[in-house]
Design brief:
Layout lengths: L4 E7 L6 H12 L5 E6 L15 H12 L5 E4 L1 H4 L6 H9 L4 E7 L12 H7 E6 L13 E4 L9 H7 L3 H4 L7 H9 L1
Parallel strand pairs: 1-2, 1-4, 2-3, 4-5, 5-6
């Protein structure tokens, strides 16, 4: 019997952008997963020092609009419903109750941070990590982590960049899914 594998693509998604869409499409095309869960962080504790974050319900609504039509993708509110900081290890433990294998899907820009995540050693023992190429990021991880690269052309785009630039409506159309643009503009006002 083949093991049932799910990919976990978590994040703040403030806002969800075309780089996220490309990463999810690339992950779906690997053939590794029966499903990919996009989990919107309820309390993105690692973002507290970088400024305000839109409420979870707003970010969840944008994620649904951005990702619901993508192959294999299911958008989840499990971290928004959970009280306290959103820790990936907690989500992985929940998913392992339903799935044989859970793989994290992360951008290469996050690989250097994984060892500092909450209960990182335990997390490393539970998951494999699919790394999406990003400019300036490492495609592989240290020996603690089991990792592989998800093939795709790197996309040089981040939610932080979008928030800091306060882009015009026209500029947003080049970096966000079209249906997300009016929602994001409404939420950030």
């Amino acid at each position: 019997m083949t093991a049932r594998r799910i990919g976990l693509f978590g994040g703040t998604f403030d806002p969800p952008h075309l780089g996220h869409v490309a990463a999810l499409q690339a992950a779906a095309h690997t053939g590794h997963f029966e499903r990919i869960e996009v989990t919107v962080a309820g309390d993105p504790y690692r973002k507290r020092d970088v400024g305000p974050v839109l409420p979870g319900e707003c970010r969840l609504a944008m994620a649904h609009v951005a990702f619901d039509g993508l192959d294999l993708v299911h958008v989840s509110d499990r971290e928004i419903r959970r009280a306290g900081p959103s820790y990936t290890i907690d989500t992985v433990m929940e998913l392992r109750e339903e799935w044989d294998d859970v793989d994290l899907i992360v951008g290469a820009d996050l690989t250097s941070q994984l060892d500092s995540w909450h209960r990182a050693r335990e997390l490393a023992a539970l998951v494999r990590v699919g790394v999406v190429p990003r400019p300036g990021g490492a495609a592989s991880l240290g020996p603690t982590w089991r990792s592989y690269e998800i093939p795709m052309s790197p996309v040089d785009l981040s939610s932080t960049f979008i928030r800091q630039r306060l882009l015009s409506d026209e500029d947003l159309r080049h970096v966000l899914p079209a249906a997300v643009v009016p929602m994001y503009e409404n939420f950030r006002e």
